[in-house]
Amino acid sequence: MVQDGGVSYWSAPTTDGPVHATVSLPGSKSITNRALILASLAEGTSRINGALRSRDTNLMIDGLRALGVSITGDDTELVVESGVLHGGAIDCGLAGTVMRFLPPLAALAEGKVVFDGDEQARLRPLGVILEALRVLGVQVSGNALPFTVCGTGAAEGGHVEIDASGSSQFVSGLLLSGARYRHGVTIRHIGRPVPSMPHIEMTLAMLRSSGVQVGQDSSAGSATPDTWQVQPGPVKAVDWTVEPDLSNATPFLAAAAVTGGRVTIPHWPETTTQAGDAIRGILRQMGAEVGWADGALTVEGPAELGGIDVDLHDIGELAPTVAALAALAAAPSRLRGIAHLRGHETDRLAALSAEINALGGRVAETEDGLAIEPAPLGGGTWHSYADHRMATAGAILGLRVPDLMVEDIGTTGKTLPGFESMWARMLATGVGS
Ligand SMILES: O=C(O)C1=C[C@@H](OP(=O)(O)O)[C@@H](O)[C@H](O)C1
Ligand SMILES: C=C(OP(=O)(O)O)C(=O)O
């Protein structure tokens, strides 16, 4: 690690040989933070087994505690007991799940809840969900971070129309707390298609497990849902078991793909609502062999990686990994359907094209994605933009590009603390024939 004026640079490990390893991943960010919200709204005691502990989930835990929720337990085994929610101050960091899932819950607190976050978080879209809360009878001041929700201990709820094309989290956030609103919540989406639909499926599935009645519908002539509903009613306490984070698994699987190696991830669920599961199809399309047996997923990389033309609208979280794979592929790639990534941790389309091009790559930003041509890449500095997935994309490229320095590798702690040591262990145990 090199320090330069307070900024750290991590020398990304390079390898000529194939990576062979088995890598266990901690729990899913999306499942952990949903379980925390539902447990905080439930009657009784909930347990969360295998919770992810990372910046995003710790911010959620701290935020809920600030409102009066009791969260105890041991590291990844959490015990959650709700009480009467009161006002407080919430730090959202850069976490989309915190800034979009907590305000609807804060409406149920008795008192003012003040939200702020990282400087960069002030740029992330929030106006849609804050305006929706106003329509549902909640007093909110502000349209972006920082903002305040003036909770009265109850919220009216009812019908609201929103444009959720900027983030599925607007829909998930309103649904997660909606059962505790007097009339429940019905959301109708109007606008361009909603991204990350599997994340909405995850929300609905977890609400059903909590005994909440949910529904979804699509307008005539469309197969895609655009209306979601939660009936008013109690939220049941649940003992949750959190699946490993499959999106966080993708850089490790990519290591097999770009080195012609073999990487296995244990405890890969047979069925899941996690977007990361889609990496199987993507890697197959790029020429890798992908097999699932006895609860483990194994990827074997090809001698030469092929390009891919793929719509990532539903699985935008995977775009940085796929862009890194595409930059190392032997044929052109096209990543489509991800205009909403401009509102992620950073403008990921701008960041990925700037950083890959700075290494000698040939990437063009399109209106809704990236066009990536094969090009020989050389070393240099890879900027992370405080974005955990930019940092891991740099690590993937570093496997094949010598002298690549990744800025602020610690930013991976947003969802995967200890990434560097996991990466080093993968390489130490498994580079071979
Ligand atoms: O609900 C969730 O847990 C998430 C939904 C998605 O957000 P967007 O719909 O804003 O892309 C995803 O990208 C994010 O990492 C997690
Ligand atoms: C977009 C992401 O995170 P967030 O939950 O902060 O939106 C991500 O993890 O890729």
From TrEMBL:
GO biological process assignments? amino acid biosynthetic process; aromatic amino acid family biosynthetic process; chorismate biosynthetic process
MF term (GO), any: 3-phosphoshikimate 1-carboxyvinyltransferase activity
Which Gene3D superfamilies does the record associate with it? Enolpyruvate transferase domain (3.65.10.10)
Question: Where does the record place it?
Answer: Cytoplasm
- In this protein, the active site sits at 317
One of the record's GO cellular component terms: cytoplasm
Q: Does the keyword Disulfide bond apply?
A: no
Q: Where phosphoenolpyruvate is bound, by residue?
A: 29, 96, 124, 169, 348, 389, 414
Question: What are the UniProt keywords, alphabetically?
Answer: Amino-acid biosynthesis, Aromatic amino acid biosynthesis, Cytoplasm, Transferase
Residues annotated as binding 3-phosphoshikimate are: 29-30, 34, 167-169, 196, 317, 344
EC main group = transferase
Give the pathway annotation. Metabolic intermediate biosynthesis; chorismate biosynthesis; chorismate from D-erythrose 4-phosphate and phosphoenolpyruvate: step 6/7
Domain named Enolpyruvate transferase is located at: 16-421
- Subunit organization: Monomer.
Which family does the UniProt entry place this protein in?
Belongs to the EPSP synthase family.
According to UniProt, the name of this protein is 3-phosphoshikimate 1-carboxyvinyltransferase
